[in-house]
Structures are given as C-alpha cells and as structure tokens.
Amino acid sequence: MFGAMARPSPPCPSPHPPGFTLIEILVVLAIMGIAMAIAIGHGPMRSARLEMRAGAGQFADALRRAEALAISSGAPVNVVIDTRRRLYATDATPPRGFAPGLAITVLPGTQTLPMGKAAINFSPDGSSSGGGLKLTGPQGSFTVQANWLSGQITANAMTATNAN
Questions:
Q1: How far apart are CA 67 and CA 120, in angstroms?
Q2: What is the chain's Cα-based Rg?
Q3: pTM to 2 decimals?
Q4: Where do the DSSP E strands lie in the chain?
Q5: Which residues have CB under 8 Å from 118's CB, separation 6+?
Q6: How far, rounded to the nearest angstrom, does the alpha carbon of residue 136 sit from its chain's CA centroid?
Q7: What are the tens digits of pLDDT across the range 122-156?
C-alpha cells in the first residue's frame, strides 16, 4: 500500500568487542581513588559552634541527671567540676571531659573547692546550691546554670551583645 519499507541494513561488524578495556577501568579507578583520598584527607566536616553547643548540652544533661538522682534516691548528689583537668563528674558517674579549645569559667554563686574545682549540689527536695559554668570558644559562648531554689537547669547561647 505505502510502498515497500526498506529494511535496515545489518550493523557493521566492529573489529573491537563492546565494553571497556582494562586500561580504561584502571584509569577510572585511579581517578576515583585520588578523589577519595583528597576527601578523606580533609576529615569530617566540623563546626566549632556545634561542638561547643554539644558540650554545653552534655554538661546540662549531667546536671539534670544529678538532680533527678537526688530526688529519686532521697539523698544529696554532687556535681564536681575540675577546671584544671577540664573534667566534670557526679557522685554516680565517671568523669567526662569538656571539648578541647573551650575556656571554662566558673560563674559567681558556684561553690568553689580547692585546687581549681567547683561543685553544684542537688538536694532531695529538688533545690540546688546554684551556680554554673560559662563555656567560651572561638565562635561564642554558652552558659549552663542551676537555679538554687528550683534546681532548674538552663543552657543559653551568649551573643556579642549579652556576652559581658
């Protein structure tokens, strides 16, 4: 009706079989290896501000756990901060360290102990001795405080306007 359809001609036989040669695959693997070595060499992406925030959050969490333990056990619980060794511990937990590069300042109202130590004590009624820390790094600072009357723990970022 419409005329004879032309049949496609068979493909020309190629002298090379389809696929990649061993040399091509090795070149691609070498390039990928170099790219991965460069990426791994830079290490994980890190943020000094996030590390500082995490450190403040971990310390605040330790204070909250100490408060909860004091209330549930009916016995006082102490959190001791060693500013020289950059550690803190409760009566029931092993010492934990603060992130490197953070300056640790004991806030006024915190009980001071000899040899660069300070303490925050929690009573079974939920109150505390009060006080806290200021953690300062290159990207700003955070304060973590325990209210003496209610025992409430707060962790706040300090901006340039309220850092003093």
A1: 10
A2: 31
A3: 0.69
A4: 77-82, 87-90, 96-97, 103-106, 111-113, 117-122, 131-137, 140-146, 153-158
A5: 80, 81, 83, 106, 110, 111, 112, 131, 133
A6: 15
A7: 999 989 999 999 998 887 899 999 999 888 999 99
